[in-house]
Design brief:
With 339 residues, this protein is an alpha/beta fold. The chain has 9 helices and 10 strands. Bound molecules: 5'-O-[(R)-(carboxyoxy)(hydroxy)phosphoryl]adenosine.
């Protein structure tokens, strides 16, 4: 009998549902919320309302596209956290209702673990690209920057993480002060491709171990803008490409330095990247460069699996189902949880 899992993701501003059967993705439907663009960031209350509107059609569409009947589902996996509480509540409550009506178990999924396990999603039965255990995963998103040692599907250790801002926040906040809109990461990436990454120098942190810090970079970026704007009010407009290229290069340098150190110290050359910032073309190039220079076997996700999606929730649910790792019906969402 195949194992068929429905995954539901609602932790931030994407409502998504996916069906995975024996590790193979049958559908992955994502409704992104454009409502936040006008505000320069995600507005939690608007996000939960949009999830409420989207969740029924998104789940129905995922089941339809998968070509299965609801009665074939073995379990409902849902993101329990971390994320926005109101948003998580919509997905969690829906999962409970559906699981109760179908009389199937529920599986809680940690959003961060799901980003890591996205590397195990198969798009066809003979799709064999998954990393081998143990591997290192650089998880970089709008809210997290972590180096994770992945020992098994259900065994992950965070060996380094940001002590302040996340890498995505560095992109988003610097983009915001340059008036580039939200989310800033993709815009910075696009402009960076046309600029000189050596034009400006921003400060890099000096902290022990594998931890990250991005707030110093942000401050030094702001100071550069402040000083140069005094001399030339058009400084940003004239230099935005070089500013973006230098910012992006600094973020990537900070990320790769610690990852290289972890790989060397632990003797692990199987290295993956996950999360929204892994869409960054400079970071992807840096991974390919490290593969050539240090003999790493790198794993870079498809663009569609870098941002929030339910396929990563469903695949995590699939592996937890194999361990019969279910959660009680009264499971409540958490805004903050670590791996
Ligand atoms: O994982 P994710 O979709 O969601 C949350 O963390 O909630 O990550 C979103 C982050 C944002 O900070 C966004 O600016 C960043 O990923 N991002 C990028 C790129 N695409 C998205 N950062 C740099 N370059 C990109 N191409």
């Amino acid at each position: 009998m195949p194992i068929t899992i429905l995954g539901i993701e609602s932790s931030c501003d994407d409502t998504s549902a996916s069906v995975i059967q024996d590790g193979v993705m049958l559908s992955n439907v994502i409704a992104s919320q454009a409502v936040h663009e006008a505000y320069g960031g995600v507005v939690p209350e608007l996000a939960s309302r949009a999830h409420q509107q989207n969740i029924v059609p998104v789940v129905s569409e995922a089941i339809k596209r998968a070509g299965i009947k609801k009665s074939e589902l073995n379990a409902i996996a849902f993101t329990r956290g971390p994320g926005l509480l109101g948003s998580l509540l919509v997905g969690t409550s829906f999962a409970k209702g559906l699981a109760a009506s179908l009389k199937v178990p529920m599986i809680e999924v940690n959003h961060l673990q799901a980003h890591v396990l996205a590397h195990f999603i198969k798009e066809s039965p003979d799709d064999e690209h998954a990393p081998l255990f143990p591997f290192l995963c650089l998880l970089v998103s709008g809210g997290n920057s972590q180096i994770i040692k992945v020992n098994a599907y259900n065994n992950m250790e965070v060996i380094g993480q940001t002590i302040d801002d996340a890498a995505g926040e560095a992109f988003d906040k610097c983009a915001k002060v340059m008036g580039l809109g939200y989310p800033g990461g993709p815009v910075v990436n696009r402009l960076a491709n046309e600029g000189n990454s050596k034009a400006f120098t921003f400060s890099k942190p000096h902290i022990a171990g594998y931890d990250y810090s991005f707030s110093g970079l942000k401050t030094s970026f702001l100071y550069t803008l402040r000083d140069r704007l005094k001399e030339d009010p058009d400084f940003i407009e004239k230099n935005k490409r070089d500013l973006c290229a230098s910012l992006q290069a600094t973020v990537i340098d900070i990320l790769m330095n610690k990852l290289r150190k972890a790989s060397k110290d632990l003797g692990i050359k199987e290295v993956a990247v996950a999360g929204g910032v892994s869409a960054n073309s400079g970071l992807r190039d840096a991974f390919l460069d490290h593969a050539r220079r240090y003999g790493w076997k790198v794993h870079i996700p498809k663009f569609s699996f870098t941002t929030d999606n339910a396929a990563m929730v469903a695949i995590t649910g699939y592996y937890k189902y194999r361990d019969q790792d279910f959660c009680p019906m009264d499971a409540a969402p958490f805004s903050r949880v670590t791996i």
